[in-house]
Request: fold
Amino acid sequence: MKKVMVVGRGSSKSWSQLKEIKGELMRKVMIDKIGPAAMYEQLAEECCELAQAALKAARMMRADNPPRKSPKEVYADLNEEVADVWICLRELDLKVDTDIVHYKEERFLNNWHNMMCGEETYVPFEEV
Ligand SMILES: [Mg+2]
Reply:
């Protein structure tokens, strides 16, 4: 792997490390310029576009009112919107809290298990 000497830092960096540093710097400059509120608005917009793409995928699966797109286009749109949301999350430095994810997954599966077994027990969400 090719290394590049970074002047004044005393250590060499690979091209991919330099690219990552440049990306982080550009993110900070961009957020400083537009403000974090604008980035949250962008995230909300991309979430709406993801919801729209998911609804189109559901319409395609049900086939009662299919979108005027091929399945390949529908899934491409879905993947594109997932990527857009992911980029916004990264720009805002929002990370997934895996403790909450695991807790919610377990709660979800337990609720489904209880429902399938005819139990009426519903476990509501509690703060982790
Ligand atoms: Mg988008």
In short: Residues 46, 49, 81, 84 surround magnesium ion (CB under 6 Å).
